[in-house]
Amino acid sequence: MPGLVVFGRRWEIASDDLLFPGGLEIVVRVTWLLAISIVYNEHRDSLHCADGNLLAAYLIGIIVQLCLIIVINAWIVHVSMQGTITNYRPRRQMPTLLYVRFALYIPELAWDIIGTYWTFRSHVGCDRNVVAVVEGAVIFSWIILLLTMVGIAVIFDPLGSRNRFSFWQEKHGLESGETDQLITSARSAAARVWENRCKVLCCCAGFDEHSQNAFSDVAQVISDFFQDVDLTPSDIAAGLALVQQEQDRHGVPDPVSIVTAQPHPQEEPWLEDLGLVAHYMKFAMAAYGWPLYVYSNPLTSLCQLSTECSCCSCSSGQVEGGTVIISDNCCKCHLAGILLQTGVASTDVVYATFHNKVYEIPFFVALDHERRSVVVAVRGTLSLRDALTDLSAESEIITVEGVEGTFAHKGILQAAGFIHKKLEEENILANAFWKVPDYNLVVVGHSLGAGAASLLSILLRPAYPRLCCYAYSPPGGLMSWPTAEYTKDFTCSVVLGKDLVPRLGISTVENLKSKIIAAINSSNKPKYQILVGGVWYTLCGSTNTDTTASSSGSSPNLSQPLLDEITRMPHEPDGTSQPESSLVRRQGAAVQPAPLYPPGRIIHIIEVTPARSCLSQPTYGAVWVNTDHFGDIIVSPKMLSDHMPDVVMKALDQLVQLQGRGLQPFLQHCDQPVI
Predict the structure, then answer these.
(1) Backbone angles phi, psi at 318, to 5 degrees
(2) Backbone dihedral region for residue 417 (phi beyond 0: left; psi -120 to 50: alpha; all else: beta)
(3) Catalytic positions
(4) What's the confidence (pLDDT) of residue 533?
């Protein structure tokens, strides 16, 4: 529902969000009340000392305050459970209750100050154990107040002041130019707030020119996304739960985009040979260095890394065999992870850099004698700097000779340009092919690395026309349709199951936002039931309540930000209000860019039969899908786990085993929904 308004401003919380924090506070306060009561009854006779009356008065005051706080919190919890997300009229008492609750903080604060003065001074003749118990009560009371202040800071909305959203009530009385000016001002303020948040969250990313540009780009993308909705974080969580159940209830039909004509093995063996695809996945995993190797091999990795590491070797530059290593740690742990993951010799690693800044991501170049190739492997997201590169999602033109309408994800294109510049300026590929002139060039990567690898392949192809690229779990919002079609001649993408990232783009996220709003508007259940049911559904796969029935209450327009439940409260006698459309965008919303797509020909690995237990693996099959197959985000617990590189590797290994037994891993006709 819209954000709650108290003290003249909007907050990042709704009136139906107070059930769980209020219930938790009741449990804490009741426990505290029982403890204080027991202490007072047990030691009442021990308080007949010089300052005993003061200590007793403090304990009695705490007991009275706790009783009042518990009563008002119980009332708040009861009111918070009423109505639905969109029908908030049954909760119209909430602002008044919150004013009363916050008023109780004043005597509580004053009493804590007095109690601190009383208890932490010398108490002549008083039992020290009793004084220690009272001191503990004072400290606990201060902790509660401190946590309350932290909670208030978390839900504080910098854009929530009434003077920022009150103009929506008066918009119809303004001239068009004045309205546009106010909207532009609100958008600029929102962008500044998000930019400051990015700087705080990513303070370790540095504040160089690239970082500043990334902060601005990310802030603009996020502010544009949230500017035409008024949803709190819990609304989004509830909406995702509803969308997940709706998707699972109706299923996802077999897509029309499944390619019926498989690539011919004799003509394109690099596409049909899953052993080749799985082989280069090892290089994509190796680009993550030692962290992913330890994660994938928790029991044996430390012992194996110790055999390859060079202790206290803090030099950065050429090492034995002519290998150039940049920005590795003192023990060369990243290089050790590359060697163990790929199985290549240290002398076959031509160049490796682990330098990481915004738009500058690590990569390495190695000689793969087994497959007679020079491999450029690009690392995926592993730091906040990489996340800023991911979120710089505006489009930028990439020049492709003979192709029009070619543009790509700005942040990833900048990263690919950085690698391309490095390869050219330092003659890295020229030096590698000087050693093995008859080898082929292969570019690989996972996640962010997959996007950078595919764009890097476009930049390298004029000089290396026979190169091929393997992009594992690539970003969905990566390149325009003409660019994606161009890459089909040399790029193979691999997507596992319900992986979120290949479906993630500005257009697909906007589509998901519309589904969330529609699901919220059609639900007739309280938010707490939706959230609890969503958790139960995720864990057990079933729910006993229908959370998607049409709401009989009011359905406010959730596509208006900077409005709130008070300013939107309907004034009709029956208390109902029905908007013209719950998905209407307000004037001044940003124009949505053209959709972007993943690169190349795409192998979609899907579950044929699910895992029987948490210790077993599902049975996988593979299908070829078209570029526009991943146009919808699938809400599922596996949307994140299916993106993990070790999970992708296990799925590929299973398909390779099928192929090795003479079975066909590619499904000609899939009976299961392809999702």
Answers:
(1) -70, 140
(2) alpha
(3) 447, 499
(4) 85
Structure tokens at 159: 């854009």
Q: How far apart are CA 633 and CA 264, in angstroms?
A: 31
Which of 51, 39, 5, 264 is CA-nearest to residue 133?
39
pLDDT tens profile 317-331: 666 567 888 988 778
The phi and psi torsions of 148 (rounded to 5 degrees) equal -65, -45
Q: Which two tokens stand for residue 593?
A: 């860019």
With residues binned 3-state (H G I as helix, E B as strand, rest as coil), the percentages for the chain, rounded to 5, are 50, 10, 35
DSSP state of 316: -
Residue 455: what pLDDT? 96
The closest of 556, 581, 548, 537 to 239, measured between CA atoms, is: 548
Question: Among candidates 627, 613, 618, 610, which has minimal Cα distance to 655?
Answer: 618
| Structure confidence at residue 231 as a pLDDT band (50, 70, 90) | confident
Give me the half-sphere count of Cα atoms (radius 13 Å) on the Cβ side of residue 621. 19
| Paired tokens of 215 | 């902060």
Which conformational region is residue 384 in: left (phi greater than 0), alpha (psi within -120 to 50 degrees), or beta? alpha
Provide the pLDDT confidence category of residue 636 given band limits of 50, 70 and 90. Answer: confident
Longest Cα pair distance anywhere in the chain, in angstroms? 98
The predicted model gives 649-659 an average pLDDT of 91
Nearest residue to 141 via CA among 184, 105, 165: 105
Contact 294, 301 (CB under 8 A): yes
Going by the DSSP 8-state scheme, the letter that residue 666 receives in this structure is B
Give the 3-state secondary structure of residue 305: helix
- Residue 397, Cα to own-chain centre: how many angstroms? 27
Task: Give the residues across from 621 on adjacent strands.
Answer: 606
- Check: CB of residue 359 under 8 Å from CB of residue 210: yes
Is this prediction's pTM over 0.85? Answer: no
How many angstroms from the chain centroid is the CA of residue 571?
39
For the residues of 89-104, what is the DSSP string, one character each?
Answer: GGGTTHHHHHHHHHHT
CA distances from 171 to 161, 176, 227, 559 (A): 17, 9, 16, 16
Nearest to 221 by CA among 675, 483, 592, 526: 592
Buried b (16+ CB within 10 A) or exposed e, 410-428: bbbbbbbbbbbebbeeeeb
Among candidate residues 458, 455, 539, 448, the one with its CA nearest the CA of residue 502: 448
Tokens 């044996």 sit at which residue?
300
- Rounded distance, CA 357 to CA 326, Å? 13
Nearest by Cα to 73 from 143, 21, 140 = 21
Helix (H, G, I), strand (E, B) or coil at 363: strand
Quote the tokens at residue 467.
Answer: 């190169």
| pLDDT per residue as tens digits for the range 174-228 | 454 544 554 555 556 565 665 565 656 555 555 565 556 655 656 556 666 666 6
CA 238 from centre of chain: 16
Name the token pair of 571: 């004034």
